[in-house]
Design goal:
The complex is a heterodimer of chains A (131) and B (235).
Chain A: H1 2-28, H2 32-60, H3 66-96, H4 109-119
Chain B: H1 2-23, H2 34-46, H3 51-59, H4 61-81, E1 87-88, H5 97-119, H6 128-145, H7 153-178, H8 185-188, H9 206-229, E2 231-232
Antiparallel strand pairs in B: 1-2
Helix pairs in contact in B: 2-3, 3-4, 4-9, 5-6, 5-9, 6-9, 7-9
The chains are: A mainly alpha (131), B mainly alpha (235).
Transmembrane segments (chain A): 6-27, 39-60, 72-91
Protein name (chain A): Na+/H+ antiporter subunit G
Organism (chain A): Thermococcus indicus
């Protein structure tokens, strides 16, 4: 019983640590893309740790039941599936609206790809919102 | 500058005034008069475990009917304000494939969760309004991810009207059976689910009303989204 509670506490601790790293990355990183990178990844991982940890922690206490773990695992799976999609949409929107990369960036393959695509068929009008 | 300073000063004065008024309110003490009655009698009188939904649907059902009417008027008002002869979605940027695939996968689960919320209104936090808003979120997701998606208008408008009438009809049946509007006939007269409190098949007519409200709110908010995302096109 107590081993479960200990595992849950450890998981919650790890999760909150990753939350902290996520907030730190939000302050520390130089541009939008780097900030999204750090904050999304570590916030997702931190949430997973906290949620699954709470479920396991509740199993170890005397009021806990499997319902806690079930609910937290369902929420964790939902977050695991939705968080990357939202991060993708945000970053893509940021790029499309012309937010520059950090000045230390060396390569921008996506811009090359867009320019190559706009150049190849001469007739098609160049448009910002195209794939 | 002067304007802003005046605004800040007046806001501070109002805030101080409200704080003075609230300072006399005891916090954390047992000062419930009507609420104590609700807490003591909610189970035997309504069959619901969730006291909030029991109050909202049973004890004060008229308020909920009024809220539903407000939403309906809002939906109609948006429709009337944004009325054009020929409207189409003119979105240009197609969503990326990650977004569309993710939406395709997620929408059924979001709708399922919305239905879960409004069906379990008498057991868990939530009820018809959050459930309906969740379902409308699924439609908003479809609108955002696909540039050509449109809700089936005819079916939505008919559903909206039909469930609105169903709510009034449930109230009128209560009027016929029990003598007053929105009388909970399923619980008070039939005693349906009396030995089943805390399970799904209990709660009198709360699950029925909340299913109605959930469908209504879901279709209404989706209709508002649809109206606001469309633009006039010239032929």
């Amino acid at each position: 019983m107590n081993a479960l509670a200990a595992i849950g506490e450890a998981l919650v601790l790890i999760g909150t640590f990753f939350y902290f790293l996520s907030a730190l990355g939000l302050i520390r990183m130089p541009d939008v893309y780097n900030r999204m990178q750090t904050s999304t990844k570590s916030a997702t991982l931190g949430s997973l740790g906290v949620m699954v940890g709470v479920g396991i922690w509740a199993l170890g206490t005397d009021f806990g039941s499997a319902a806690w773990l079930t609910k937290t695992v369902v929420i964790a799976v939902f977050l695991l599936l939705t968080n990357p999609i939202s991060a993708h949409a945000l970053i893509r929107a940021a790029y499309k609206s012309g937010i520059p990369l950090w000045e230390g960036s060396v390569v921008d393959k996506y811009r090359e790809h867009i320019e190559a695509k706009a150049k190849a068929p001469e007739e098609t009008p160049k448009e910002g919102g195209e794939e | 500058m002067l304007k802003r300073a005046l605004a800040i000063i007046s806001l501070l004065l109002i805030g101080y005034w409200i704080a003075q008024g609230l300072a006399g309110v005891p916090f954390g003490q047992d000062r419930m008069l009507v609420a104590q009655y609700y807490l003591d009698h909610v189970k035997e009188q309504t069959g619901a475990v969730n006291a909030v939904t029991a109050i909202v649907v049973n004890y004060r059902g008229f308020d909920t009917l009024g809220e539903v009417t407000v939403l309906f008027i809002a939906s109609t008002g948006v429709g009337a304000l944004l009325w054009r002869r020929k409207k189409q979605r003119t979105a240009k940027t197609e969503g990326s494939i990650v977004l569309t695939t993710g939406t395709r996968l997620l929408v059924p689960f979001v709708m399922l969760f919305g239905a879960y919320i409004f069906i379990h209104g008498h057991l868990t936090p939530g009820g018809g309004f959050p459930g309906g808003a969740t379902i409308a979120t699924a439609f908003l997701l479809l609108y955002m991810a696909f540039t050509t998606y449109e809700i089936p208008h005819k079916a939505f408008e008919k559903t909206e009207g039909a469930v609105g009438m169903a709510y009034v009809l449930v109230g009128l049946i209560g009027l016929a059976i029990g003598g007053y509007f929105l009388y909970d006939w399923i619980w008070q007269d039939w005693g349906f689910g009396v030995d089943n409190i805390g399970r799904l098949l209990s709660g009198g007519f709360i699950p029925i009303i909340y299913t109605i409200i959930g469908l209504k709110v879901g279709t209404e908010l989706s209709g508002i989204i649809d109206n606001m995302l469309k633009e006039e096109v010239s032929k």
